[in-house]
Amino acid sequence: MTITEIRTLPTRHAVTTTDHTATTDDHARLAITVHQPGEPDPSRPLVVLVHGWAASRTVWHATASQLAAAGHTVATYDQRGHASSTAGQEPIGIERLARDLDTVVGTLTTPERPVVVVGHSGGGYAALAWAAGLSAKGPSAAKGGASVKPLAGLVLVSTASHGQNTPANEVKMMGSKLFSRALGTPWLGRRLLGGTHGPSATLAAREANRRLFAATVPAVRAACFASTQEMDQRAGLAGITAPTAVITGTEDKIVKPSFSQELASALPHAELHRIPGTGHMVPLEAPQHVAHHVHLLVTAGR
Description:
With about 300 residues, the protein is α/β, with parallel strands linked by helices. It is about 35% helix and about 15% strand. The protein has helices spanning about 60-70, 95-110, 120-130, 170-175, 175-185, 185-190, 205-215, 220-225, 255-265, 280-285, 285-300; strands at about 15-25, 30-35, 45-50, 75, 115-120, 150-155, 245-250, 270-275. Strands 1-2-4-3-5-6-7-8 form an eight-stranded mixed sheet, with helices on both faces. The radius of gyration is 18 Å and the shape is globular. It starts with 14 loop residues before the first strand and ends with a helix.
């Protein structure tokens, strides 16, 4: 377990962004943004950032911008049913979301190019399932998805492999109109979501989280939180041999740090990194930490 000294990444590159769409085998259309340096290095892995429940690809804006300016090609996308992505025909579930990730990777790159996958919270659950081959058909077999790809690394932020059994009354609340109306009132919405942040979170970070949560369709929020009730990915962890950074905020009340510590211990080549004073919303509270560890994974050995 380490508390890493975070260094500012080099910013040698101008950054361009382009939008893309990937279509899954059940006809969900996934909205993607690729952040790319002016002179991309095709020998570097593609970095794919996967957001958590009731968020969107915009939650990664600061992280993606820092990485692209440092020379990395980065893809962010809206998970199904979120923001600009459609819901598709199949219900939301961890294995389904892992196959969506596979489709995004397959759409953006060749089978030979390595990838680094970064998942926050629910995005981390999908990343784990994808990496461990826990999808219903196996990620490499998903129709229209990627071939077997070299996995250059994982960064799992505020993530667990099990134990995230959302109570039924909380799932019901996520889908309720009353909760949605409350989220639409800035001061009240920030108060309701106060447990997702650490004590040092800025007002801008708190408000960004409220807006993302409020903008998510209530039925999608409920389906996402319900999807973890039977989640237990521990059996597949030993097979994930890619170098992995597990990042947790010391004040995370949603996915407690003990789950991140257990996850890091179970993965063969993982290190746990603690961010003092930070809560669950690390991409908004401390994006530089995520960018730092992605950069280290991509450039290791270069």
